Amino acid sequence: MGFFSRLFGAATPSLTAAEVEEKLKFGKHPMILDVRQPDEYRQGHITGAKLIPLNELHRRMKELPKGRDIVCVCASGSRSASAAKILIKEGYVVFDLRGGMLAWRRAKLPVQK
User: Fold this and answer.
1) What pTM did the predictor assign?
2) Which of 17, 70, 74, 101 is catalytic?
3) Does 72 participate in catalysis according to the annotation?
């Protein structure tokens, strides 16, 4: 284990916006978990995303499927990386959407309001 992984923990598996879109269209259809606040979610989210704000994740974790990949998303990637680490410790198969909704919008992918 390297210095940074000892200091910050192992890197969280992440996917680009294009990779998530590909999985949604042709893959195993991961669950999209949006960990932003409700007002952020209402401003635009990935179609079908489930909203569980990061501060509610511990309490609402049982709402998430254990047998399905989960992609965590937030505005820029910070909160979703934290959510992914929490879920990985609980045995979920999780990926972080690298760059969050900023990257999703930059890639000109569909946003639902």
Assistant:
1) 0.91
2) 74
3) no
